[in-house]
Amino acid sequence: MPPANSLKPLQKDRRATNPAFGTRTLKLGTFQTNLDSGCVMSDLDGRLDITWPNTVALAQLADAMEFEALVPVARWRGFGGATDPQGPGFETYTWAAGIAASTRHCGVVSTSHVALNHPIIAAKQSTVIDHISNGRYTLNVVNGWNFPEMAMFGVSLLAHEDRYACAEEWLGIVKRLWTEDERFDHEGKFYKISGGYLQPKPVQHPHPAIMNAGSSERGRHFACRHCDLVFTNIRTHDLATNIAHVAAYHRLAREEYGRAVRVWSNATIVQAETEREARDFYNYYVHDKGDWVAARNVIDTMAAEINKRDYPEQRRNAMAEMMICGWGGFPLVGTKEQIVDGLVGLSKIGLDGVLLSWPRYIEGMREFRDVTYPLLRQTGLRD
Ligand SMILES: Cc1cc2nc3c(=O)[nH]c(=O)nc-3n(C[C@H](O)[C@H](O)[C@H](O)COP(=O)(O)O)c2cc1C
Q1: Based on CB atoms within 10 Å of each CB, which residue in 115, 128, 150, 223 is the most buried?
Q2: Best mutation site among 71, 112, 142, 157 for ligand 1, i.e. most ligand atoms within 8 A of its Cβ?
């Protein structure tokens, strides 16, 4: 019997197969291409209409530019309002399996709610996607905050601390299934496993990449201790603040857990021929066409989450605007040169990668491929 965690014949070093571990200075991805409306909350014509051909079209655009991570969002119902953004959508594991089969280069992610997916099922489904993609797969672990969608399952969200304790146990089981040959028993606070078994093992050795986007202090510790890709939001244009913010993740991972992590964020691209036109378009889709009812539902749900986050009324409107504009992504608004400068700026603060979205997802991404990406390549960030 080979020792646990040794490379099996079908396995490969994940640094060679998963583009998220690649050497490009700035990695790129897409966000939420599995859901209706994509990342916007707006009655904008040309926003993402979620059909299988449309989601594949976006994945293949990403594939042509060798994006490193296509990240779907695990969402089970929408946010109401006039457009019910994120209501219709594709479940993330089955989506990732289909996307893996429809692409050749890009990294493919599934997003898993700890509370809704048993760890054996999560490990098994992930393994299938890792085989379909030949080692391009990443598992995004999420703990949930959106209690009405949990209520739909009859599942109550645990208290915040317990949610992360549960996620630690869950991920420990998933990793054991991926890496250990011997059957194992597990008796924990949240799970009981008898004779845990999983074959074949994933393609990636020692196991598939893991990502997490926890933003609380507990979430940041979870991500830095157990995950490879950690996500954070960039909220200011202040260079020094942003550099310190990203560096804090690296320091936490290194100093407390002796690990290295890669820090990613997300951004929304609003591009036009002139900066003025780009700003006008922003105002049009956000202020004229924005689905403020749906956006307020998001913010109110976040605020009413069982931790009772304290969002003052004034801040709620600003947060709603961020949701309408691109689901909280850092807005990059301007000409193609300004968009490239913005991406260079995000790289300079130490981010390893950025998930992108466009208000008119397909049209915007085509323009990016044809007009903006060639300029970005000239910066050397994609070498
Ligand atoms: C890039 C990104 C992707 C996320 N994907 C999901 C998701 O698919 N489903 C979900 O319920 N939450 C998702 N979240 C929310 C986070 O997992 C997390 O619950 C939230 O940031 C609150 O942090 P906390 O859990 O540390 O309190 C995502 C957040 C980000 C930034």
Answers
A1: 223
A2: 142
Query: How is domain 12-378 classified at the CATH fold level?
Result: TIM Barrel (3.20.20)
Q: How many CB atoms lie within 10 A of CB 381?
A: 18
**pLDDT one-digit tens code per residue, 92-114:** 999 999 999 999 999 999 999 99
Dihedral of the alpha carbons of 234, 341, 46, 277, in degrees to the nearest 10: 110
According to the model, what pLDDT value does residue 4 have? 54
pLDDT at 6: 75
Pair of tokens at residue 154? 């009859």
Which atom, in ligand 1's list, is nearest to the CA of 73? Answer: 8
**Rounded distance from Cα 142 to ligand 1 centre (Å):** 6
* pTM beyond 0.90: yes
Are residues 177 and 198 in contact, defined by beta-carbon separation less than 8 angstroms?
yes
Mean pLDDT check: name the lowest of 146-150, 309-313, 335-339.
Answer: 309-313
**What would you report as the CA-atom Rg of the chain, rounded to the nearest whole angstrom?**
20
Q: Ligand 1: does its nearest atom lie under 6 Å from the Cβ of 231?
A: yes
Residue whose tokens read 């403020």:
292
**Angstrom distances, CA of residue 295 to CA of 3, 15, 242, 291, 358:** 51, 39, 26, 6, 17
Given a cut of 50, is residue 2 above it in pLDDT?
A: no
Q: Is 95 in the pocket of ligand 1 (CB under 6 A)?
A: no
Ligand 1 mean position, distance from CA 265 (Å): 12
Query: 């000409």: which residue's tokens?
Result: 335
Tell me if 202 sits within 8 A of 131, measured CB to CB.
yes
Name which residue sits closest to atom 9 of ligand 1, judged by CA.
Answer: 74
In contact, 111 and 92? CB cutoff 8 Å:
yes
Mean pLDDT along residues 280-294? 98
Q: How far apart are CA 192 and CA 189, in angstroms?
A: 8
